[in-house]
TrEMBL record:
It catalyses: tRNA(Trp) + L-tryptophan + ATP = L-tryptophyl-tRNA(Trp) + AMP + diphosphate + H(+). One of its GO terms (molecular function) is tryptophan-tRNA ligase activity. It comes from Coleofasciculus chthonoplastes PCC 7420. A motif ('KMSKS' region) lies at residues 197-201. This is Tryptophan--tRNA ligase. Homodimer. It is an enzyme of class 6 (ligase).
Amino acid sequence: KKRVLSGVQPTGNLHLGNYLGAIRNWVEAQSQYENFFCVVDLHAITVPHNPATLATDTYTIAALYLACGVDLNDSTIFVQSHIPAHCELTWLFNCVTPINWLERMIQFKEKAVKQGENVSTGLLDYPVLMAADILLYDADLVPVGEDQKQHIELTRDIVIRINDQYGSKKKPVLKLPEPLIRKEGARVMSLTDGTKKMSKSDPSEMSRINLLDSPEEIQKKIKRCKTDPIKGLEFDNPERPECHNLLTLYTLLSGKTQEAVAAECQDMGWGQFKTVLSEATIEALKPIQQNYQAVMEDKGYLESVLRQGREKAEAIALSTLSRVKAAMGYSTPL
Ligand code: AQP
């Protein structure tokens, strides 16, 4: 089976963008692959973070993976910082990655602007750590949302460079991974601005629906979300980004086809549609929230999942790390 690697940062509550752009796709395809899903807590400190909540947030994300349907028969769940090889491989990659490759990254530029003078070296280095995450496991495929495509391209550039400098055509050091971006859900947009992606770092809670939001919160956010004054609802009108985004959310959460939703909603007013969308969202999130409560009631179980996950993942990571170090000419530890 082909191997899949993906992850989410524990930088706050997971939202519908993370779910529809990534986790739901992991779950739908997991039986076809051998999967590794990590909670990327080392990435979480590339922006200012709260030490008091980092560990709890990490557990929350791992529990949400299980709650969303990640199946341990097909998938391994682990925490990035539990495996030091991620940092070590990052250092090796740092020394072959030109700084200007990193300065070109859109996510870096966007996040750096927000932070002014406090931008950390870690934020610039984020994509190199991500390359280490992927390449340590010889992943074939990386299922992510559209926003991560540029980072996977950079991972591929690092592979090409390492193979070129330290490997041979016959014996490449690293495997070249491919992004796996599903068209549906690849870019879920903010509820307050249909031209911006839904994001954990948006200061407005009203801009996103979190997977653990109560039905009342969901209703309130959808009631207040940005719309437009045009009558009738339609997909694909570039003048109406909010309309397209909300209809897309309804399509994905209700499980209906785009054609069915277009027909159902074409004559609706916003008030009526918002009720329909709220109900579909609450209904879709209900089982995830129930599963999450059940997982959180048994902390011992979650710990054992993460312990076993670490053991399995670390064995693979250490073997890749030795391979890369040997290719780069390092002596074997005595
Ligand atoms: N709006 C989105 N639409 C589709 N997919 C999305 N993803 C994130 N936002 C959207 C996908 O979710 C996965 C995990 O993302 P992450 O939390 O590790 O990093 P991120 O992309 O930085 O997520 P956020 O919410 O946007 O956080 P901030 O605000 O910190 O940047 C990835 O597969 C991502 O593509």
